[in-house]
Specification:
The protein has nine helices and six strands, in the order βαβαβαβαβααβααα. By secondary structure, it is of the alpha/beta class. The chain has a single domain, classed as Rossmann fold (3-Layer(aba) Sandwich). A six-stranded parallel beta sheet has the order 3-2-1-4-5-6, with helices on both faces. The protein starts with 8 loop residues before the first strand and ends in a 23-residue tail after the last helix. The structure holds nicotinamide-adenine-dinucleotide.
Length: 250
Amino acid sequence: MWISNKGKVAVVTGAGSGIGRAIAVRLARDDAAIAVWDINAEGAAETARMITDAGGKAIAIGVDCSDKAAITAAAQRTRAELGSITILVNNAGIAPFTPFMDIGEELFDKVIRINLKGPFLVIREIMPDMVAAKWGRIINITSSSTQSGSVGQTHYVSSKGGLLGMTKALALEYAPTGITVNMVPPGFIDTPMLRASPVDVDAYAASMPMKRVGKPEDIAAACAFLASEEAGYITGQTISTNGGRYMGSA
Ligand SMILES: NC(=O)c1ccc[n+]([C@@H]2O[C@H](COP(=O)([O-])OP(=O)(O)OC[C@H]3O[C@@H](n4cnc5c(N)ncnc54)[C@H](O)[C@@H]3O)[C@@H](O)[C@H]2O)c1
């Protein structure tokens, strides 16, 4: 599919690694200028370098996407260097595995702060740009675990389930404005996060309908479509990108 986002500015959070990096590279290939946001400044710089080496436009910003002041500073720098932001992919996240009784309040709060409150803060910062442009694309990276559950991830699945709810509520509220809000729940994508989990990736791959785990580029392709002009009549929806593993509703 040929997509042109020429003249558009996209923020991709957590784009210093894995899925976020692939999304940033893909949106850049579709001609958007990319602000690569990640708490890991080195990873962000590497992604931006990959984009500019390929002839695209990108800047890297080290930012904790759960810190309101840092988010505001990152958005101001993005606007100053690239322009007003009308595409946002909320991808930054953490995914610990912890037995339920070991979770504790502090860890629960941390997961909710990064995976749920973070997107809330980033959206609030960037929404005025989209409202002024009467055009916007917000894509939230949720998780197939909201469809299936996941042992040892009550905190994580709660955070992603909250993001699912946020996506639908926001999609309705902003439907008249030219701004769409959708979600992509990845299922078993080969990234540093998956490799760090207790999952035996190769054994799991063999149990998948497609006999493989996903690639970060599989998620990027779904995001590229949702970010495009042609996806303008799609809002509050889910593109389940999981190799056929889960076929239920969002
Ligand atoms: N890999 C999978 O199979 C899978 C499945 C379901 C959902 N997801 C979701 O996809 C997203 C990307 O995951 P991934 O597999 O690429 O993981 P990853 O660990 O490779 O990448 C996550 C990135 O987010 C960044 N990050 C973490 N906390 C941050 C913060 N506070 N501020 C800014 N950046 C921060 C990290 O530095 C890292 O670069 C996550 O939201 C994850 O929950 C992944």
